[in-house]
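Hi C.,

You asked whether I'd gotten around to modeling the 248-residue construct. I have! Everything is below, sequence then structure, no commentary in between.
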Amino acid sequence: MKVATPVVSIYLMADADLVELAEAAVRGGAGLLEIGIPFSDPLADGPTVQRAGQRALRNGMTTPRALALLAELRARVPVPLVPMTYASPVMAYGERRFCADAAAAGVDGLIVPDVPADEAGALADGCAEHGLDLVPLLAPTSTDERIEIACSRAGGFVYLVSVAGTTGARERASDRVAGLISRVRPRTPLPLLVGFGISTAAHVRAMLDAGADGVVIGSRAIEVAEQGGAPALEAFVAEVASALPVSN
C-alpha cells in the first residue's frame, strides 16, 4: 500500500455505523483508515476500544460481516483500508482464507498485534499471496533484534506504540517516541506512524516534531463519534489534521 505522508490515520470499529463514520473521517482529512474487527479478549485495547468492540459484538458483528462492511467501505472511500484484529478470530476463520477474503474486499493491509513478525507463518504467507501488507507493531521496549526482524518483514508502514500499555486517549504525548524513531528509522524506508494516546492537534505536532510520518488516533475518535456522530467526528479529524504541514 502507498501511504501518503504526513498522515492522520483514524481507527474505527466495524459496526453498523462504520461506513457513515468512515466517510466523515475521510472528509475531515483522514488519509488512512484502520478498521477494528471485534474480538472478545482484545489484549491491546483500552477501555474505549473494548467498549466499542463489545457493542459491535452485541450488535451481531462477525468476521464475515466485518469483511462485507469493508467491501462496502472500499467502494465509498479512496484511502488505504487496514483491518486490525487478533490472532484468534483470524485463525478460527483460517489464515489463508481470511487473507483471500480481505483482499477480495479491497483492503490494503492487516494488523494483528498479538502475532510477532517471526511467528506469522501462514498469515504472512497468505498476505504475500494476496498482495496484503502485514503491518508490525513496535514499542519503546522492543529490543534491537525485534526491531530488525519486524522491519525486515514489514509492509505498508510500521506502527510505533508510543507507550507501554493499552490504547487510550491521554493528556500528554509520550516523550519516548523520538528515541524509538531513531532506532527504527535506519532499519526501514517505510513510513513510521505513531499510535496509542494520540488525541489532540498538539499531540500530532509533537509526534511529527519527533520524526514520525504520521499518527493513528483511535480512542479519542471513537469517543467523539459516540458523543456527536459523524458530524462531530468530521470536525474532530479536521482539527487534528490541521496540524499536518501543508504539502506544496
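If it helps when you're writing up: The domain at 7-240 is CATH 3.20.20.70 (TIM Barrel).

Thanks,
B.
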